[in-house]
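PROTEIN–LIGAND DATA SHEET

This sheet pairs a single protein chain with one bound small molecule, zinc ion, given as SMILES. Inputs appear in the order they were entered. The predicted three-dimensional arrangement of chain and ligand is reported afterwards as a token string under its own label.
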Amino acid sequence: MKRSLLLIMDMVSGHAQDGIRVPATGLCAPNVDGYVQAGLLPTFRELRDQGVFVRSWNRGTCNTPHGMRYLASGSYRAKASPKVDPYWGFDEIAPIPTILSACKKSHPAGKVAAFGSDAWMQTGWWKAPDCTMGWGSYYSDFITMQHAFSWMLANPEWKMVLLYLAQYDKTGNCPVFKDGAAYTQDKHHSIQMLDRYLWSVMHFLREKEWWRDTYLFVGSDHGCHVTCSVAVEEGRKRGIAEKDLANYCSNHQDPYDCYVWDFEKNRATARRADDCRRTLFMVGGGALPDRHRGTVVPEAEIIDFAPTVAHCLDIELATDGKPVLAGGT
Ligand SMILES: [Zn+2]
Ligand SMILES: [Zn+2]
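PREDICTION REPORTED AS:
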């Protein structure tokens, strides 16, 4: 039986504009592609080498309520309206199916469960047919993971598990690099912690001998502003010293279309940064056919995540995206 584990890491940038260096690290802004190339993310490197790396974009609204919905449904059909809460911004919660509900419909015998922040463990997002566990917004990633593992051990016939790690989303309005920073106190150390969490997931699947039958999908909802026009503007508003602006990451607020900042000339360049839109999307696991291993999909969108899962697991789901793995599974 083929299964899938969907690992969603909030706010993780999958890739970055080429040629940008953060003075505090001498590296690119923290993102999976760049940090893998810098040798800092050994587990992401392994997943990349034996899987598919997708340069993915969020072309819609880059906040979490929308991003999670795009991931779950494979559709941008979540209309914003000025009349409702500007953050949630939905004029209706259309009852469109998600990859979790569709999995149950296509494979009724397989159990589907979700673990993460209560806010997104709702209908239309990550509510799962057989088991849904949600906690406060920034509940421990580590403990969330343990709950998922416990449930999988108790339900060895699991078909799909959604594991959502929230805490990296706290790395907004923080330095890119801070000496000896703990998880969520800066970006540089925090993204390396996510590499260890990814290791835990992969190690668990291997130890329980589920790896061979499992597709592992890793995704994110949005990135964040750093070394761009919006990060500088927001940093100044918040009183960040000029000398520290190149080491400052703001958040993922609009506008999401932003420009690379030239810190020497102290002005925006004409080059788009669009760092909030650069989402993470990787496919790996033992179930992935060999011909896909070590491949890169140069451009795709966040709404291609759900159809790719559907394609690999033989799930019927109508979406506005397309599977990124060409030529079948
Ligand atoms: Zn988010
Ligand atoms: Zn930006």
